[in-house]
Write a structure and sequence with these properties.
The complex is a heterotrimer. By secondary structure, chain A is mainly alpha-helical. Helices cover 69% and strands 0% of the residues of chain A. Chain A has eleven helices and no strands. Chain B is an alpha/beta fold. Chain B has helices at 48-56, 81-87, 99-102, 109-121, 125-138, 144-147, 157-169, 187-204, 215-218, 239-244, 249-256, 297-301, and strands spanning 6-17, 20-32, 37-41, 64-71, 74-75, 92-95, 175-179, 207-212, 224-229, 232-238, 315-316. Classes of the chains: A mainly alpha, B alpha/beta, C mainly alpha. Chains in contact: A-C, B-C. Chains A and C meet through helix 1, helix 4, helix 5, helix 9 and helix 10 of A and helix 1, helix 6, helix 7, helix 8 and helix 10 of C.
Chain lengths: 290, 330, 316
C-alpha cells in the first residue's frame, strides 16, 4: 500500500548513509538510470522505436527478437516502446504532482512553523484530519467522478501530498526558527517576509528537496497502483501500472509481461529513493541523526 | 597470608579515537583485600571511570584492555561469558553515578530488585518480594512495600540511589564498586548515602571501592586511597597516612580545593590551574608537571614511577615529594 | 491516569467533528446530481425535483450537514439507493474480512520485523545489520501490487500451494479461509516489515547505549532478559505508534490487495461504491473508516501511557 504520508523526521538508516564507500556507486547508478529513463521518455517520439499502440495479432506474447527487442504483449504491441512511453506517464505525473505539494504544503508548513500560535495549531489539526482519510479512496473517488485523465490524476495526487509536505516543512522550520541567524535577523529589524524568504527558505529548501524526491518515488507508485486497477490514465496510453495489470492475466504463460514493467518501475522508484535519501542524509538539520 | 580479593596487574585501557589512540588507563597496579575499602580519587577525565569499567568488565566495545584483572584469583577477561555473568551480583556489584539513568524508567522498583534475586538466588516471586521489602527497609527507605510497585521517577534522587544500593547489595556481593555514588545528588543527601554505604560495608565485611573526585569523601570512610592522574596512579597510601603525610603535590592541591566550612565567606577556592593533559598526546615526563608549582626540568623529561622509597607503606610517583605536613587551608 | 484519558478524549472530539464535516463537504461537492443518478433512465424533471425535495437535497448545505450529522449520531449512516442495505449493514458485513486481513498482515509484519530489528540492533554496524537494512530500504521501493504479483507467481502459479483469488467464510471452511488470507496478508506484511524493523532498530540502538542497560548487565542478568525486558519496552514507543497508524490505515487502505485477491472487504466495498456512483455508501463508509482511524490513534495514545509510566504520571 503506497505510503503517501512519509514521516520526514523518522530516523531512517539507509545503506546509502551507512557505508560512505558505497555511497558513490549506488548514488551514481541511480542518477544514471534516471537520466537515461528521463531522456528516453522525453525523446520517445524521435527514437527509432515502433509505435506503442501498433497491434500485431500474429505475434502475441512473442519473445525478444530483432523486430521487438523486448518482445510483445498480449495484443502484439512492442514492449520496449510501451515501456518507454509508459515512462513518460510515470515521470510526468511523478514529477509534477509533488510540485503541488511542495509549493502549497511547503509554504503552509513554513508559515505554521514560523508564526506558531493559532495558525500553527489549525494547520497541524487540519493536517491530522486530512491524514485520517484513506488517500487511495480519495484519489479513486475523484478520478471516478471527474474523469480519468493524466491531469486529474496529477492534481489529485498532488493535493493529497500537501499534508506530508506541510509536516516536513513545519518540522524543519521549527528546528531552524530558534537558531541564531533567525534571531539575529529579527533583532536587526527584518520583516517577516524578509526572514522567511532570505533566511529560512534557503535552509528549508534542501530538506524539502530531499523529501520531494522521496515523494516522487511514492507518486510513481501511486500512479502505478491506480493504473494497475484500471483507474489511472486511460488506455491506450501505456502506463507501467496498467501494463502490470494486463500482464497479470498472462502470468502463467508469459510472466515477463508483468515483470518487465514491474522491474522498470522498481528500479526507477528505487533510484529516486536512493537520491532522495542521500540528499536527506546530507541536509538533515539534526546532527547525529541515526 | 590471605589472597587479595581483587588484583589489577599492569592494567591499561586504550580507546581508538579520531585523533589517535587514547590511553585512558596507564599501567595500573592495585590490590584489594577482602573486607577492605579502597578510595580512588581524581579529576574528571583522569581515567577512574574507565578503570572501574575495566574492573567490572563493562568496557565499551572499542576499548582494548591489557594486563590482568584478577578477582578471587581468576582472570576476569579470560572467563567465559556465562561464568562472568554468574559472578555479577553474588560476588561483584556496582552502584553507578546517576540513579535516574541507571534504573530502568519503565520497570517498577520491585521488578528491578526481584529479578536480581531470582536470577542469582533462585528465589520464587513471593520470597523475592519479601526479601526486597527487607532490603529497601535496610537502606532506609520508608514504606518499602509500596515502593515495590512504584517507578524510579516517582522517587527523589536520594531514594533512587538507595534503591540502587539495595539492588547492589541484594545478593551479598564480596566487592562493591561505587562509581561517584553521590555526585548526582544534593549535598544534603550525599553524607547520608556515604554513611549508608560505609555502614553496610562494615556490617557485611564487604570489600568496597569508592570512586570520587572529592578527596573529602574518602576521608574516614576508606582504608586506603589511590590518587589517579592522567590514567596513572600517582599516590597510594593508607588513608590516615595519606592525609597526614601526603607526598604528591597533586594530592596536596586536591585537598586544598575542598571548600572548608570554617573559612571566611567568599574565600576564593584554590582551583588547580591548567587542565589535565590531552590523553592522546602523553607527555614524556610527569603528566602533572605543567600544572605543578614545584616542577623543574627533570620532572618534565623523566616520568617518575610509583614507588615506596621510604618503606612506609605509602607509594607515590614524584621527583620532589612533599616532606612537610600538608599545608591545608586557603 | 483518568485525567490523562480525559484530556485525550477532549482533544478527540473536535477532530471527529472536523472529520464528519470534511467527509460531508467532499461528498456533496462531487459533481453529478444525486437524484438524477438514482432515477437513472427514469429521470424526468418532475421526478428529479420531487426526489430532491424528498431527500432534502434542495436545502442549504449547512442544513443538510446538520441533518446528516444528526442521523449519524443516532447510528443512521444512510442507506444505499442501489442495494437498499444500510451503510452500517454493508460495513458490518465486510468488516470482519478487513479486520482479519489487517490483523494477520500487521501480525506477520511484526513477526518478521521485531526479531530482525533486535538482531540488527545487537549487531549494529555489522554485515547482517547492513544487509538487512539495505533489504528494508530496497523493499520500500516495491509497492504492494508488485509484491502481490510476485507472490501470486511464486506460490499460486509456479508452486500451486495457495489460491490466487477466492475467499470462503471462516464459518464454512476455516482452513480454506485461512489459506485464502495467506497471500494477501503476506503481501501487506511485506510492505509493513521494513518500516517496523527500521523504527524499532533505531530506537533499540539508542536504548542499548543507556546506563540502565549497562546496569542490567552489571547485575548479571541473562542477555535474553536484558534484550526482551529491559531494552524492548522502552524502545517500543515509535513501533507502537507506527503499528497503530498502519492498522488504522489498513482499515480502509487494503484496497489494492483486496481487489487483487478478490476479498470481500471494506476496500472493495468502497471501490464498488465509487464505480456505481453510490454516493451514500461512499460517504458513509469513508466516514466510518476515517473515524476508525482517529479512534485507533486514540488507542495508540493510551497504549503509550501503558508502555511508558512517565507519560502516565504527567512527565515524559
Amino acid at each position: 500500500m503506497a505510503v503517501l504520508e512519509l514521516e520526514g523526521d523518522t530516523a531512517a538508516v539507509s545503506p546509502v548513509r551507512q557505508s560512505g564507500r558505497r555511497l558513490g556507486g549506488l548514488f551514481v547508478a541511480a542518477l544514471l538510470w534516471i537520466v537515461l529513463i528521463g531522456l528516453a521518455a522525453i525523446l520517445a517520439n524521435v527514437l527509432p522505436i515502433v509505435s506503442p499502440t501498433d497491434m500485431d495479432f500474429l505475434g502475441k506474447r512473442a519473445p525478444p527478437s530483432a523486430a521487438h527487442l523486448l518482445g510483445t504483449d498480449q495484443l502484439g504491441r512492442d514492449m520496449l516502446s510501451r515501456l518507454i512511453y509508459g515512462a513518460r506517464i510515470s515521470l510526468t505525473v511523478g514529477l509534477l504532482s509533488p510540485v503541488i505539494g511542495l509549493v502549497i504544503g511547503g509554504a503552509l508548513g513554513m508559515l505554521a512553523g514560523y508564526f506558531g500560535g493559532r495558525f500553527e495549531a489549525l494547520t497541524v489539526g487540519g493536517v491530522d484530519v486530512l491524514l485520517a482519510f484513506p488517500p487511495l479512496v480519495f484519489a479513486l473517488a475523484v478520478t471516478a467522478y471527474l474523469g480519468q485523465s493524466a491531469l486529474n490524476i496529477t492534481l489529485v495526487i498532488g493535493v493529497l501530498s500537501i499534508p506530508a509536505f506541510t509536516r516536513v516543512a513545519r518540522a524543519v522550520t521549527l528546528s531552524l526558527a530558534q537558531r541564531e541567524f533567525v534571531v539575529a535577523a529579527q533583532t536587526l529589524g527584518a520583516t517577516h517576509m524578509r526572514i522567511l524568504l532570505r533566511e529560512l527558505l534557503p535552509n528549508v529548501a534542501l530538506p524539502l528537496m530531499a523529501f520531494f524526491l522521496l515523494a516522487v518515488a511514492v507518486t510513481i507508485v501511486v500512479e502505478g497502483a491506480l493504473s494497475f486497477l484500471g483507474l489511472g490514465v486511460p488506455p491506450p496510453a501505456p502506463s507501467w501500472g496498467s501494463m502490470i495489470g494486463e500482464g497479470r492475466e498472462s502470468l502463467d504463460i508469459a510472466p515477463w509481461l508483468a515483470f518487465l514493467p514491474a522491474g522498470f518501475m522498481f528500479v526507477t522508484v528505487l533510484a529516486f529513493n536512493v537520491i532522495g535519501d542521500t540528499l536527506r542524509a546530507l541536509t538533515d538539520p539534526r546532527p547525529g541523526a541515526l | 597470608m590471605t589472597r587479595a580479593l581483587l588484583s589489577l596487574e599492569d592494567v591499561s585501557v586504550e580507546l581508538p579515537t579520531p585523533r589517535g589512540t587514547l590511553r585512558a588507563v596507564d599501567n595500573v597496579d592495585l590490590s584489594l583485600m577482602p573486607g577492605r575499602t579502597l578510595g580512588i580519587v581524581g579529576e574528571s577525565g583522569c581515567g577512574k571511570t574507565m578503570l572501574s569499567r575495566a574492573i567490572l568488565q563493562l568496557l565499551p566495545k572499542r576499548a582494548k584492555l591489557s594486563g590482568r584483572v584478577r578477582f578471587g584469583g581468576r582472570d576476569l577477561a579470560a572467563l567465559p561469558a556465562e561464568s562472568l555473568r554468574r559472578l555479577r551480583g553474588p560476588e561483584l556489584a556496582v552502584v553507578f553515578q546517576d540513579p535516574m539513568t541507571s534504573l530502568n524508567p519503565v520497570l517498577t522498583i520491585g521488578t528491578q530488585l526481584i529479578e536480581t534475586l531470582q536470577a542469582h538466588l533462585g528465589m520464587d516471586g513471593a520470597a523475592a518480594a519479601r526479601r526486597s521489602v527487607d532490603l529497601l527497609a535496610a537502606v532506609g527507605i520508608p514504606a518499602p512495600a509500596q515502593r515495590l510497585r512504584q517507578y524510579p521517577h516517582q522517587l527523589s534522587g536520594g531514594m533512587r540511589q538507595r534503591v540502587a544500593i539495595a539492588i547492589a547489595l541484594s545478593c551479598e556481593p564480596k566487592l562493591l564498586v561505587a562509581d561517584e555514588p553521590t555526585t548526582a545528588l544534593d549535598v544534603t543527601v550525599q553524607a547520608q548515602i556515604l554513611d549508608l554505604l560505609a555502614r553496610e560495608q562494615r556490617r557485611r565485611q564487604m570489600a568496597m571501592i569508592l570512586i570520587t573526585h572529592d578527596l573529602g569523601v574518602v576521608a574516614g570512610r576508606t582504608d586506603e586511597v589511590a590518587v589517579m592522574y592522567a590514567g596513572r596512579i600517582v599516590e597510594r597510601a593508607p588513608t590516615a597516612q595519606l592525609f597526614a603525610r601526603m607526598r604528591m603535590p597533586y594530592t596536596e592541591a586536591l585537598l586544598a580545593a575542598i571548600p572548608k566550612l570554617d573559612s571566611p565567606p567568599h574565600t576564593a577556592l584554590p582551583a588547580i590551574a591548567g587542565r589535565p593533559p590531552d590523553p592522546t598526546r602523553p607527555l614524556p615526563g610527569c603528566s602533572f608537571s605543567p600544572r605543578c608549582r614545584y616542577a623543574d626540568d627533570h620532572c618534565r623529561h623523566a616520568k617518575p614511577m610509583l614507588a615506596d622509597p621510604e618503606r612506609s607503606g605509602g607509594l607515590y610517583a614524584c621527583w620532589h615529594p612533599l616532606t612537610l605536613p600538608a599545608a591545608v587551608g586557603p | 491516569m483518568a485525567r490523562f484519558v480525559g484530556r485525550k478524549l477532549l482533544h478527540l472530539l473536535p477532530v471527529l467533528l472536523a472529520v464528519t464535516l470534511l467527509t460531508f463537504l467532499i461528498a456533496s461537492l462531487l459533481p453529478g446530481d444525486l437524484a438524477y443518478t438514482i432515477l437513472g433512465d427514469q429521470a424526468t424533471p418532475e421526478k428529479v425535483a420531487a426526489l430532491r425535495a424528498q431527500m432534502g437535497l434542495d436545502l442549504p448545505i449547512w442544513q443538510r450537514y446538520l441533518h446528516w450529522l444528526w442521523d449519524v449520531l443516532q447510528g443512521d449512516f444512510g442507506r444505499s439507493f442501489r442495494t437498499g442495505e444500510t451503510v452500517l449493514a454493508a460495513v458490518a458485513d465486510r468488516l470482519p474480512v478487513s479486520i482479519e486481513l489487517m490483523l494477520m498482515a500487521e501480525g506477520l509484519g511484526l513477526l518478521i520485523g521485531i526479531p530482525l530489528a533486535i538482531l540488527c540492533a545487537v549487531r549494529s554496524g555489522g554485515a547482517v545489520d547492513r544487509f538487512l537494512t539495505g533489504l528494508a530500504f530496497g523493499k520500500l521501493s516495491l509497492p504492494s501490487f508488485m509484491v502481490a504479483i510476485l507472490l501470486i507467481y511464486l506460490f499460486a502459479v509456479t508452486l500451486g500451494w495457495l489460491p490466487a483469488t477466492g475467499w470462503v467464510p471462516f464459518t464454512e471452511d476455516p482452513i480454506g479461509n485461512l489459506r485464502s488470507f495467506v497471500l494477501p496478508a503476506l503481501t501487506l506484511a511485506f510492505a509493513e516489515w521494513p518500516v517496523l524493523m527500521r523504527v524499532l532498530r533505531s530506537d533499540m540502538i539508542a536504548t542499548l547505549q543507556e546506563d540502565y542497560i549497562a546496569m542490567a548487565k552489571a547485575k548479571g542478568l541473562h542477555p535474553a532478559r536484558i534484550l526482551l525486558v529491559h531494552a524492548l519496552k522502552p524502545s517500543s514507543l515509535t513501533l507502537v505508534t507506527v503499528t497503530g497508524i498502519n492498522i488504522g490505515r489498513l482499515i480502509g487502505g487494503a484496497l489494492i490487495v483486496e481487489t487483487i485477491f478478490a476479498l470481500p472487504g471494506i476496500g472493495r466495498l468502497l471501490v464498488g461504491a465509487i464505480y456505481a456512483r453510490d454516493f451514500i455508501i461512499l460517504q458513509g463508509v469513508v466516514l466510518f473508516v476515517a473515524i476508525g482511524f482517529v479512534l485507533v490513534n486514540f488507542v495508540v495514545d493510551m497504549l503509550y501511557a501503558v508502555l511508558d509510566p512517565r507519560i502516565r504520571h504527567g512527565r515524559a
